[in-house]
Amino acid sequence: MYVIRLPDGTLRVPHGVLSDPGTGDAQIVADAYVEIGPDDPDYERLLAGSLTEAELEDKRRGWRAGNDDLERTFEEWKAAREDD
Q: What's the domain of life for this entry (predicted)?
């Protein structure tokens, strides 16, 4: 998950919620985003690594386009396993 910079300057920051973190057996119950503004103490630090929604979509397109070789290799491996 990435920090997303919205057009109005607000940052959408990933936030996870753990189930019963005190037991040592915590599991992620939810992954969500919270929005913060320039008045938040972490704003400047998070702003430096943030992406716009368009930049994030460009990254996703690149991942999908670059995934073809990996997907083909997996399908070949899977087909070989089905013969066993």
A: Bacteria
Beta strand pairing call for 27-36 and 4-5: unpaired
Among the listed residues 11, 14, 13, 16, the one whose alpha carbon sits nearest the alpha carbon of residue 39: 11
Q: Which residues pair with 39 in a beta bridge?
A: none
Phi-psi region of 55 (alpha: psi -120 to 50; beta: other; left: phi over 0): alpha
Q: Which two tokens stand for residue 14?
A: 């990933």
Angstrom distances, CA of residue 76 to CA of 6, 17, 22, 66, 81: 41, 38, 44, 17, 9
